[in-house]
């Protein structure tokens, strides 16, 4: 070695306690052949999986990857022969059986660096049925010194038999103070991170993603667009087409949060998102006084989000039009007495 080091992966500050769980299991001889990392989006499950794979393959056999051995160097250059990453592919974003067949071939080979092999499966809930069954065979008869690391923000969508073959590591949202400190370290100003964290529902990585994509502007725009739809200035088809080109899943997630906040306020709960949603739009929704209908719509919307996010072959434009037509119907009562969210004076 020439003395140089290579940063192959890093833990996020709030992941230290989970990492200590892994080390404890390893030292007690209880490290499983398959792990399932679960928790909400944007808490760093992928980063943790990358870090753990670097540690598992590292020749130094310490509590952290050394960054200096040949294995770490290969990982740093993205060319480690004993590591395989499976990601969703194609227009539907699924993991298909051909990818898992490659895993079977890979795991049957001898580790070239001699430290074992690692298979990473990103968004494991995207496995289609054939792929899930093929992966299950690998998990039921694991090759020696092969570690499988799966992760998912929607782990209940995974086949129960796959979940039962993996030990779970749970990740939760970090404390607000920890998230804010980390966001400042990423160069986000103190005047921005409170709103970013609110929009991201406490997820620091999503907050960073929103910041880098300049989505604070989009956040303001989508609510104004709903007001325009309510006032008749924009049609359902026009808005559906616009939203289709603006990260459909993200906006539907925001709409789901908006409905949740409206229902909470209908039920008399304190405002949990002060300054996050336009008050005139929430007031118009609350004026309909049909919490049960909004809840039914909420369930329908979230089912559609799962379908759009998964393997269902849906037309995004038609799906969005369906949602916006239903939203308009529920807002119709209040729109008779309001224009642009403001009461009409007789």
Automatic annotation (TrEMBL):
EC code: 2.7.7.7
Domain DNA polymerase III delta subunit C-terminal, residue spans: 224-328
Gene3D superfamilies, alphabetized: 1.20.272.10, P-loop containing nucleotide triphosphate hydrolases
Keywords, ordered alphabetically: DNA replication, DNA-directed DNA polymerase, Nucleotidyltransferase, Transferase
A Pfam family per the record: DNA_pol3_delta2
InterPro entries: DNA_pol_HolB, DNA_pol_III_delta_C, DNA_Rep/Repair_Clamp_Loader, P-loop_NTPase
GO cellular component: DNA polymerase III complex
Catalytic activity from the UniProt record: DNA(n) + a 2'-deoxyribonucleoside 5'-triphosphate = DNA(n+1) + diphosphate
Swiss-Prot/TrEMBL GO biological process terms: DNA-templated DNA replication
Keyword Ubl conjugation: no
Signal peptide: none
TM annotation in the entry: none
Molecular-function annotations in GO: 3'-5' exonuclease activity; DNA binding; DNA-directed DNA polymerase activity
Matching NCBIfam families: holB (TIGR00678), PRK05707.1 (NF004310)
Protein's name in the database: DNA polymerase III subunit delta'
């Amino acid at each position: 070695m020439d003395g140089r080091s290579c940063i192959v992966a890093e833990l996020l500050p709030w992941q230290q306690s989970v990492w200590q769980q892994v080390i404890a299991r390893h030292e007690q001889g209880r490290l499983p052949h398959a792990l399932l990392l679960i928790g909400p989006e944007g808490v760093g499950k992928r980063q943790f999986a990358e870090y753990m794979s670097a540690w598992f393959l590292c020749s130094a056999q310490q509590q952290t990857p050394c960054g200096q051995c040949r294995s770490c160097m290969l990982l740093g250059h993205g060319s480690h022969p004993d590591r395989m990453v499976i990601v969703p592919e194609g227009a539907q974003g699924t993991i298909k059986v051909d990818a898992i067949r490659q895993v079977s071939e890979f795991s049957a080979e001898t580790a070239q660096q001699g430290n074992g092999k690692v298979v990473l499966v990103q968004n494991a809930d995207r496995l289609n049925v054939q792929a899930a069954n093929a992966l299950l065979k690998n998990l039921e008869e694991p090759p020696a010194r092969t570690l499988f690391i799966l992760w998912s923000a929607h782990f209940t969508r995974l086949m129960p038999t796959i979940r039962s073959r993996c030990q779970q590591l749970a990740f939760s949202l970090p404390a607000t103070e920890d998230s804010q400190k980390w966001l400042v370290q990423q160069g986000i100003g103190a005047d921005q991170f409170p709103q970013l964290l609110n929009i991201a529902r406490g997820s620091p990585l999503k907050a960073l993603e929103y910041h880098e994509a300049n989505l604070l502007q989009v956040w303001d725009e989508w609510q104004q667009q709903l007001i325009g739809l309510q006032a008749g200035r924009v049609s359902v088809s026009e808005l559906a087409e616009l939203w289709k080109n603006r990260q459909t899943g993200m906006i539907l997630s925001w709409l789901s949060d908006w409905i949740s906040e409206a229902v909470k306020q209908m039920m008399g709960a304190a405002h949990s998102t002060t300054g996050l949603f336009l008050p005139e739009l929430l007031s118009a929704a609350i004026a309909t006084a049909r919490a049960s209908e909004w809840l039914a719509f909420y369930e329908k919307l979230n089912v559609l989000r799962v379908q759009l996010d998964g393997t269902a072959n849906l037309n995004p434009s038609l799906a969005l039009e369906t949602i916006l037509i239903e939203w308009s119907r529920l807002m119709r009562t209040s729109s008779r007495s309001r224009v642009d969210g403001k009461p009409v004076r007789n």
